[in-house]
Design goal:
The protein is an alpha+beta fold. It contains 4 helices and 3 strands. The protein has helices spanning 34-41, 62-74, 79-84, 93-109, and strands at residues 12-15, 22-25, 47-49. Strands 1-2-3 form a 3-stranded mixed β-sheet, sandwiched between helices. The relative contact order is 0.16.
Length: 110
């Protein structure tokens, strides 16, 4: 997108050499498009994806959800545990929790 456009929806992929699968994360819990599936299949690993929406429908924080997911996976937090931190059904509380998690993470870096 151009810098003055509204933007697109962000998703994340996580591939660990020690895992038998590749992870696809969408904060809306949407299955990957055919184009993305085809790209992920190049890894020759099955695709694991989340089907639970954790981002509120009116939220624009999808990139932050992706950052949080990858950061937590790199710290060894299982995918299931990350998803279960959040309320189901796009609760508006989820954006607040996301920001709290990111502030805690950034405080560690500083």
């Amino acid at each position: 997108n151009d810098s003055d456009d509204l933007g697109s929806h962000w998703v994340a992929c996580y591939k660990s050499p020690s895992k038998q699968y590749i992870e696809f994360f969408d904060s809306f819990g949407v299955y990957p498009s055919t184009r993305i599936q085809n790209k992920l299949r190049e890894s020759n690993k099955p695709i694991l994806y989340n089907s639970s929406p954790i981002q509120p429908k009116d939220s624009t924080k999808c990139g932050l959800y992706c950052y949080m997911y990858i950061t937590m996976r790199e710290k060894g937090v299982p995918s299931y545990d990350i998803i279960n931190l959040f309320q189901p059904n796009n609760s508006t509380d989820n954006d607040r929790l996301l920001i709290d998690l990111l502030e805690d993470d950034l405080a560690i870096i500083q």
